[in-house]
Amino acid sequence: MSANNHDIAAEGNNSHSNPFSRPVTPKTSPIQMGFIGLGNIGYMLAQNMALKGPIGQTGFPPILVWNRTVSKAEKLLGMVGADKARIAQDPEQVAQECNVIVVNLANDDIVRAIYLRIQASLKVPITVITVDCLLVSINGSL
User: Fold this and answer.
1) Where are the alpha helices (DSSP H) in 66-107?
2) What is the strand order of the sheet 63-66 is part of?
3) Half-sphere exposure of 5 (CA within 13 A, CB side)
4) Which CATH architecture has domain 26-141?
5) Where in the chain are the domains?
6) 94: left (phi > 0), else alpha (psi -120 to 50), else beta?
7) How far apart are CA 33 and CA 85, in angstroms?
8) What is the pTM of this model?
């Protein structure tokens, strides 16, 4: 038996020593969190996530935030630092770069407009989790 065949045979024998072994689970990339809307609730949620990060995740990337009033995003960035938050140019950037997006918007019309923009910007089907913290009417939720 060649050295390579011997190594393969030995590995095969070792795999039988633990009948419950399975391949190592691949590591996933860190969660990229995004926030659209930095009103009273959105600002506090974004601040908390920027400073503490997702539970059980270390070395997480800076959150990505967007707000119609840029000064609110700049205020958050000034408070938490550039290593904890980045400001998006538009909500489409948040949708394209993040896999979890927390949405906090003021009313039905704004919600509808932002979601239509996000939908139009996603050319390829991707998995995005949105967490809506919205107070919209019944008609706005349809």
Assistant:
1) 70-80, 91-97
2) 85-87, 63-66, 33-36, 100-103, 129-132
3) 2
4) 3-Layer(aba) Sandwich (3.40)
5) 26-141
6) alpha
7) 10
8) 0.75
Residue 74's nearest CA partner among 82, 40, 95, 93 is: 82
Residue 81 neighbours by CB distance under 10 Å:
11
What are 69's two structure tokens?
């009033």
CA distances in angstroms from 23 to 9, 15, 26, 29, listed in the order given: 18, 11, 9, 18
Taking residue 41's Cβ as centre, other Cβ atoms within 10 Å add up to 14
Q: Which residues contact 120 (CB under 8 A, 6 or more apart)?
A: 92
C-alpha 106: how far from chain center: 22
pLDDT in tens, 14-57: 445 556 666 665 566 778 999 999 999 999 999 999 999 887 77
Structural contact between residues 76 and 44, judged by C-beta atoms closer than 8 angstroms:
no
**pLDDT above 60: residue 13:** no
The two structure tokens encoding residue 38:
């930095």
